[in-house]
Design brief:
three-stranded antiparallel beta sheet; 203 residues; mainly beta
């Protein structure tokens, strides 16, 4: 009987690799034919950066991109490509930041030309800075609702913090109902400083 072999490598590199298939029959007659395997990189780099930067001010003001907190955020992004390794990150951001939310765009391109783009936010507010917990998902056993006292939800509601503009830690309250119905429930977390300025954040 004839036996076939090939010279394929254990790992195919990026690009086109020729593979030669050879067959030998019982009389040692040999025949060979080449083919190719092409490996393409079609996935962009993975960008790592915080989704938002929150800055709390004692009074209304407009900050610039030279503000140390904003400058650090803008330059904090990193990008890593699975094939070509580290990639540079280019940032598109405004020069000034008023009270409210501004979008910062982070973009990275790998050596093959694949591009990844993610958006972050710079949120500037007056009054306390409130940090809300990350969103969670829970299962309603009865298919209708869950109690806010459920340990998973209670832990979620407690996983928050707030500081005044002078750095003082503040107590945080929330508007969670006693029972949360099936679906998306948005919870607002609030804190009030000594000047009666209120800061909020929601999840």
């Amino acid at each position: 009987s004839a036996q076939a072999t090939n010279d394929a490598p254990d790992v195919f590199p990026l690009g086109t690799t020729e593979v030669v298939f050879t067959i030998v029959d019982s009389s040692n007659n040999t025949a060979a034919a080449p083919s190719t395997v092409t490996v393409s990189d079609t996935v962009g780099p993975v960008i790592t950066v915080a989704s938002e930067l929150r800055i709390s001010l004692a009074e209304a003001a407009t900050l610039t991109d030279s503000d140390a907190r904003i400058a650090e955020y803008i330059t904090s992004a990193t990008a890593l490509d699975a094939v070509t390794g580290a990639a540079d990150v280019v940032t598109e951001s405004p020069e000034s930041y008023a009270i409210g939310t501004a979008t910062v765009t982070f973009r990275a391109v790998d050596a093959t030309g694949n591009t990844t783009e993610v958006n972050g936010s710079v949120i500037i507010s007056i009054g306390p800075q409130v940090i809300a917990p990350e969103a969670i998902s829970v299962v309603a056993i009865d298919g209708v609702s869950v109690a806010a006292s459920l340990p998973q939800i209670a832990s979620f509601l407690a996983d928050t913090s707030a500081v005044a503009t002078d750095g003082t830690e503040l107590a945080v309250t929330n508007d969670a109902p006693e029972t949360l119905e099936v679906g998306v429930n948005t919870i607002v977390f609030s804190a009030t400083d000594a000047e009666d300025q209120v800061g909020t954040a929601s999840t």
